[in-house]
Design brief:
By secondary structure, the chain is of the alpha/beta class. The chain has helices at 2-10, 15-19, 22-56, 77-83, 96-101, 119-124, 161-169, 174-193, and strands at 63-67, 86-91, 108-112, 149-153, 197-211, 214-220, 232-239, 249-262. Strands 1, 2, 3, 4, 5, 6, 7 and 8 form an eight-stranded mixed β-sheet that branches.
């Protein structure tokens, strides 16, 4: 706990990301990785392999953008840095470990960005906010990168969570809140699909709590939004017992989809 507290204090982040709990979630994810590293490794390896296959299909060697880079356990940053002229790691919070590890890699840079465009707005919402008017905004800061490869790395299912938590805290109706979450997920998929170059989407899609007798609870993490056809799927042992419970394991269904290259404008 002491380590996590120090990391929370020392991690640079904007006030919106810190106030909405993204720094705390990032630090907690790092701690869970350390506890569950062995169980996570098959999933992380599948992620890295999917990214490298997408990279090998790129017609150019310009800029790579990694959305939701986080701790980069699921993205082979060094390999990408050797294959492309520039690698941009884009996230709302960049952990201290990543900031340290990319020092000396001159073609790897960090961009602190809100992939939904809603974090600053969310901090200002009050009871009675018009939920129907809430619309995600494309990350403009990435608009001039002209990427030959864009990777969405295990972030799609997480994008709506800070907004959802804020709306629920304000007492908004669950049905309306779910619609906002759907719009956030759909907007990211649409944005990714409209970018130039190759696009690679890796995301968890379904959460299941499972014991010896089968599935106890199942949750659609994408709020009914469908991914493009094709790709591959696998299972991620996110929280084996006793990580979240002594009674069950929490597993995730994961999908990886790659769109072929589109011409650069």
């Amino acid at each position: 706990m002491l380590r996590e507290g120090v990391e929370w204090l020392a991690t640079p982040a904007g006030w919106a990301a810190r106030g909405l709990g993204l720094v705390a979630e990032t630090v907690a994810m790092g701690a869970r990785y350390r506890r569950c590293r062995r169980e996570w490794e098959p999933h992380l390896q599948r992620c890295r392999e999917a990214v490298l296959r997408a990279a090998q299909g790129c017609p150019g060697r310009g800029t790579v953008v990694v959305c939701g880079s986080g701790y980069c356990h699921d993205v082979p940053v060094r390999r990408l840095a050797g294959m492309f002229e520039r690698v941009v790691l884009a996230d709302a919070v960049h952990p201290l470990r990543v900031r340290w590890e990319i020092r000396g890699q001159g073609n790897v840079g960090l961009v602190e960005t809100d992939l939904t465009g809603l974090l600053k707005q969310a901090g200002a919402w009050r009871k009675g906010v018009d939920v129907r008017a809430i619309r995600p905004v494309a990350p403009e800061v990435l608009g001039n990168c002209a990427p030959v490869l864009t990777i969405s790395a295990n972030v799609l299912s997480q994008l709506a969570l800070p907004v959802k938590a804020r709306l629920m805290k304000l007492g908004c109706r669950e049905e309306e809140t779910t619609q906002v979450c759907r719009r956030i997920v759909a907007a990211h998929v649409d944005w990714l699909g409209g970018l130039p170059g190759v696009r690679c989407l890796v995301t968890d899609t379904v959460s299941r709590d499972v014991d010896e007798n089968g599935i106890l609870e199942e949750t659609d993490l994408l709020y009914g939004i469908s991914l493009p056809p094709g790709g591959e799927t696998w299972t991620w042992s996110l929280a084996p017992r006793p990580e979240v419970s002594r009674r069950f394991d929490r597993i995730r269904q994961v999908a990886a989809v790659t769109w072929p290259a589109r011409p650069l404008p």
